[in-house]
Structure prediction request, 830 residues.
Amino acid sequence: MIEIITIGDELLIGQVVDTNSAWMGRELNLAGFDIQRITSVSDKKEEIEEALESASKRATIILMTGGLGPTRDDITKQTLCDFFNTQLVFNEEVFADIREFLKGRVSNINDLNRDQAMVPEKCQVIRNSKGTAPIMWFDYNDSVVVSMPGVPTEMKMAMTNDIIPRLKEKFNPGHILHKTVLVYNIPEAVLAEMLTQWEEQLPDDIKLAYLPAPGRIRLRLSGRGTNMELIQNKIEEAVKRLKPIIGDNFYGEEDVPASMIFADFFKKTGKTLSLAESCSGGYLAHLVTLMPGASAYLKGSLVTYSNDMKQKLLGVDGEILNKYGAVSEQVVCQMALGALNVTGSDYAIATSGIAGPEGGTDEKPVGTVWMAWVGPGQKVESEVFRFGKDRERNIVRTGEVALIELMQRMKKGVL
Amino acid sequence: MIEIITIGDELLIGQVVDTNSAWMGRELNLAGFDIQRITSVSDKKEEIEEALESASKRATIILMTGGLGPTRDDITKQTLCDFFNTQLVFNEEVFADIREFLKGRVSNINDLNRDQAMVPEKCQVIRNSKGTAPIMWFDYNDSVVVSMPGVPTEMKMAMTNDIIPRLKEKFNPGHILHKTVLVYNIPEAVLAEMLTQWEEQLPDDIKLAYLPAPGRIRLRLSGRGTNMELIQNKIEEAVKRLKPIIGDNFYGEEDVPASMIFADFFKKTGKTLSLAESCSGGYLAHLVTLMPGASAYLKGSLVTYSNDMKQKLLGVDGEILNKYGAVSEQVVCQMALGALNVTGSDYAIATSGIAGPEGGTDEKPVGTVWMAWVGPGQKVESEVFRFGKDRERNIVRTGEVALIELMQRMKKGVL
Prediction:
């Protein structure tokens, strides 16, 4: 059993979101380890000590991040010395690594950098190729404590290249299998009722979890055991019975972002895509271009945030704009056709809505979003969505929904 | 002292990042409370119990989120009953709220929804206007335990409207003051050395923390006390002495995203902006449009992901493209001028780079990003940046740096 301890006042007062432990949890879980607990504590010595003490009573593996920077708000190393009854010593190899890392980055090594080469005598040092803070591995009884810097790139590099392989070798964690089924546009309680009978028939060693996201639910099936083929068969059997129950609301079965599901699907069609964005304001293009290889199919996006840009860049009719307003079926369809024509792409998506917090009316409240999709033969599909009041959520949902809806329409042969 | 307990297997295996506790930490801290610890545990009854037991020995306020959805992977309520030695009873008012909330959303109330109206007899129920899971407040001795759903909108509404006001009334936490100074483009250890003397002169009751972000460092000064005017004066005095040391690398003093600093600055100029994006792929437009009121100054963004779009939409010269490649000073400058001319904006920003993971060469490795800024009189400034190997980080840094650099150039009068 593993516990993760993340250190830093900034985590407790919410100035930094702890994404490290989520990343570590995912990687360790894929490697077959169970994560029992994640604890975030402040930079205070007694807090770190108490967290380490109590974790050591429950867990055999303790992974710590944070509290190792060059600046004076860091006291983790001294705490580790006290816990393991050892002292800090100057480590030539660590210092050589620090010098190497800083070469060309700073004009000269300062005392703070030199201090970073002081490490507890009892630990094994794991080299940090991405920064100046050392990574420390302590063996004690049959347990392990590892202390890493809180900078995500440094932590990830050390976990991937050194720590996870060493843990696997030392603890031989067995295997775990996950399968995620992606469901779209069904409220959680409704879905739960639809699945009651199916759930009752799940084998005992297959666990189900509902993971809600904006407008979507991920159903996660997990199985653990020694006979992985058997577990895999059980999971596949369960998924096979699940799909007809979900029907059209099923949209994928990989635990990856909606944009990745879309990218994998769209890339295979060999077609090209363009975007015309108003309320999504570039986020739709960002979702698509975040995926490597987007240049193979994305021509571009025209983020026409003002009405004159909608006319000038996309050829939207000024009279239609005046008559129906920018957030309307008429305008969003013209935007999609405009993007198709300007870029010469095979498909186009357009969005126009009121993201908020201002700009809502009785007829078109904040959260009203029109979308249009156009495909071969200039066939246009459009739909209006009523999202919520939160600007960021409205933008994110617009982006995700726009991609899933195009994919679903293409799969059904509507576009 | 407050402890937060977040519940859910999905947190431990990294399928969901725990953003709730960061939000809660920030709001509670602003309200003058100290957050001592954040613990994330699985949905297992014994884990929740143990976390609650041990937190109750250290903290006077325990805030729990998660484990209250309508589906069967939720067991928090039963655990709370055992801890407080009470039982679940049907609550008519909660059921009325659930019915009201689901009206128009689902066709009929199911058993799972009815179960949600079962609450521990000993608790006070706080109404949940954003969902169906009840919010439960337990008083015991001089302490408080509150259990909330894990859905962020529901948790935030309850915290803001009910829980924080009640906690303030009951515990009278005093005041805390934070001030953040934003520094740009100085490595942490170099900054720490520059600030050594200044730090030594800080008053004892003013605390300093370094909060690194990609390419930036936030310096946070915190003071706590009863005489807030005195604390404020001390912090302001310290900031006044700090600014000349940081010089041009100072770019703001509010703990908000770089894009908000930019938006606040740019909006005041009364000028308009347009964007021409290649490697940032719409993220730059997203950063700008995420801020409410962006339509007042943003004309639009031309996300020209392919070379032919750069020519067609921005008028980039095909020969220049062939000769220097898309990732070059020549092309990025033409892109910026193209955006200015096409949209008629006062200022424009252009980006062209190799985000990765593919597409790097010896001469232009992954992470090479050219940016250009153009302003009145078509004056163009350009600069090349060498970021890292990670696609997402390169995109994010490109967006943030592009905005800060335009702002700095405008402030200096270069553009």
Chain A touches chain B through 99 residues (CB under 8 Å).
